[in-house]
User: Fold VWFA domain-containing protein from Alteraurantiacibacter buctensis.
Amino acid sequence: MMAVSFQSWRRGAARFLARLSRETAGNVIIIVAASLFPLLALVGSGIDMGRGYLAETRLQQACDAGVLAARKRLGTAAAVSTTIPSSAADTGQRFFNLNFRNRSYGSNTRSFSMRLNEDYSVSGTATADIETTVMAVFGFESIPVSVACQAQINMGNMDVMMVLDTTGSMSWTNPGDSQTRIQALRATVKSFYAQMEASKTPGSRIRYGFVPYSTNVNVGHLLQDDWLVDEWNYNYRLPRSAGGTTTRPIYETRYTYISGTFTNTSSYVASSCPASTQAREVLSETVDADGWTVQQIKETGTRYNCSQIDANTYTVSGTTYNDHRFAWASRQTGMETVDNFEWRYASMPVDLDFLESSNSTTVPMGGTPLAPTDVTVSYRGCIEERSTYEINNYGNVDLGRALDLDIDRVPDRNNPDTQWRPMLNELSYLREVRTNGQGMFTPGPVRSPLEFVNSWWWGYGACPQPAQKLQVMTAAQIATYVDNLVPQGSTYHDIGMIWGGRLLSATGLFAAENADVGNVPTTRHMIFLTDGETAPLDISYGSYGIEPLDRRRWRPTSSMSLTQTVEARFSFACEEVKRRNIQVWVVSFGTSANAIMQNCAGSGHYFVAANAAELQNTFSEIARRMAALRITR
Assistant:
């Protein structure tokens, strides 16, 4: 091995430095030294700018997550708010923090703010200062990063059909509320409309339709003329000779006011019929020279007249007498011999040609059999359903026979089974149920001088407000419609579901009107609201006639009760509606959960609202779930 002394290394080094000092081809050390700092700045800026870019990307993602979460939490309720509520703001801040944690990418002074815009979108701004590593040597200690974001809930083309229970119990008030159920419903629908319209995508279309239901539905004005039968059988009465004669006196009478007052009271809805306090006292009785028997009578108190809407609801009116005094005179003017007559109660045909020019006709079924008077019979728009049969197996329904459950079938003008029948409310006598509650249902004809119950006159033939087809509506139109909803009638859920489906279906009666617009698909929703359990009455005149008499889908000897029959048909109709790609939402309002309704709606689409506030929240939640949430910036 060769050894080298330290002196020889020094002499060699000195010679090398001398040669280097005389070299003119390039001062390498000076160049390298001069280039070191710019090169370090270039590399350092690349490193720190890369970190800043990564931080900006992550900050943008966090900003988007924050406004999306806040907008989703706010839902369509933004339409009735001017600021972001604290609950929504907290949610947005939490999602921002989860996606961009403190000190991420060496950040400090992180911030995130949101605001609610006029179009109900939520805008956000996020900022952070990203600490540098290499560039700090050159005096650049941080890189400011700022991003903007915006989220919006949008509604595309949509059809919304609201099937609303307007039975008598909707006039009740839920515990803790200061308004009736129907008042709460009116306010909720108006708010729902505002939320939906505020979330609508520019250029899109949202249409609204309504089917109020109780004992029946009012859809006659929506039907073409040849969708109705030309003749139908109704349960009414006509006078018929009973044979023999009767001799009776003839009287004339007159009334003379003396003093006091009597005033008709305004009608109102109550859960019971108040007892009348009217008292009538005969002050004197005389017979004058002309043979007039004259009584002077005094009346005090109130006489109430009650019309029963359903089992627990009455419309009450009355007359109050304040020392009302009058003279009542009568005298016999002769005798007359008349033939004996009685009523013939039966299911009898009525020619419906009168509907071509008028909504009413007259039938001689008032007064007495001996002296009948004409009664005006009116068509108010409610219908009797088309042909059906008593179903025992709802897993195998023959829609060729159960035409009432065929949502899409268009009537054939040459086949009355496929057509609907106008409901003539006055033609609804319950043979042989007497006005004292005695008697039984008799399907066949009955001849009798007795008075039998008339469903309509006794308040058991309710016909709700006319339904409305799908259409674009203004806030004023929505308000006018719901403000006219009147609680009356009993709870028949099936007829509401059937007709809600018919008016919403894109493949049925109104296929041309309900088709998609252009190439833009339409989502279809039904909101079905009820405040009670199924509650049909056998004495009601409804969409299947008078059930114990007409026996179209049920009879008193059926294996299922009338309630079970209505519920089974409701469930079948609900499935038929959903098969048409219609989303069904069901709300039970002021009542407990209902398994039939829950099964209809399915998971996540059934709600129970105990009071007005919960009803508002429920409709807001439904609107939110209908919407599409997206980032717009």
Summary: The chain has eleven helices and 22 strands. Residues 30-153 form one domain. The two ends are 76 Å apart (CA to CA).
